[in-house]
Amino acid sequence: ILIVLFAPAVYTAHYHKRIVGGKETTIEKFPYQAMVLCENFLFVALCGGAVLNKKTIITAAHCVADCSENDLVVIAGSSEYDTTHQHEVDSKTIHTDYQDDEIDNDIAIICLKSALQYSNRIQPIAVTDQIYPEGTNAVVTGWGRTNDNKVSSKLRYANVKLISNRHCRVMNPLVDDTQLCTNGGSYGPCKGDSGGPLAAHNKLVGIVSYGNINCSSKMVRMYANVYHFRNFIQDNMC
């Protein structure tokens, strides 16, 4: 699903759907990674997510806003793009200030009907309790399309760096405190990775949200700022 959100002179935003320029990895190295699928008779839409506890998955609001609980499934514990071993969804909670035609508050919580079983392939990630400075190393993970525009059958990761909102506004003047930026270039999230985790120091700091249509451009990549939403997350844990 490719959705144009806004088109100022210097920045055109599209929901992210892949890791571009990343490297293959295994779920054992990123056991908090989850896959969120919206399946109905019209299409299957792929997003990422992160395990917060045995029944709680965090993702982007735009990944679930137009999908009913009956059409949502979560897959955890797999390195492959594999639609077996699905976990049914009991409920979803979208941030009350999220709107389809806006880019703020792009965050949602999914509650599973049955608990995940922790193993070396399924583990929760802690929510950050601090704001990290510009230049902090971070890693973004997901499946989806790669440089050759094909869906990756393997989980992939890309190393990125955090950018301060002050510097980020030079390229994207609509940035606010609900959002987080990382550097652009040949590595980072792009078109199947929406909703996926951005981690720094083994803590969840961002949820993949949107970016420029040219995924290899030097334009910044945008995330929901997890630190800003920590009360929303705590209040809606399953």
From TrEMBL:
Q: Which InterPro entries match?
A: Peptidase_S1, Peptidase_S1_PA, Peptidase_S1_PA_chymotrypsin, Peptidase_S1A, Trypsin_dom, TRYPSIN_HIS, TRYPSIN_SER
Give the organism's phylogenetic lineage: Eukaryota, Metazoa, Ecdysozoa, Arthropoda, Hexapoda
Which residues are in coiled coils? none
GO BP, sorted A to Z: proteolysis
Q: Where is the Peptidase S1 domain?
A: 19-238
Species annotation: Oryctes borbonicus
Localization annotation: Secreted, Extracellular space
Listed under GO cellular component are: extracellular region
Q: Which named protein is this?
A: Trypsin
A Pfam family reported for this protein in Swiss-Prot or TrEMBL: Trypsin
User: Which superkingdom, per the lineage?
Assistant: Eukaryota
Q: Which family does it belong to?
A: Belongs to the peptidase S1 family.
Q: What is its main location?
A: secreted
Q: What GO molecular function annotations does the UniProt record carry, in alphabetical order? A: serine-type endopeptidase activity
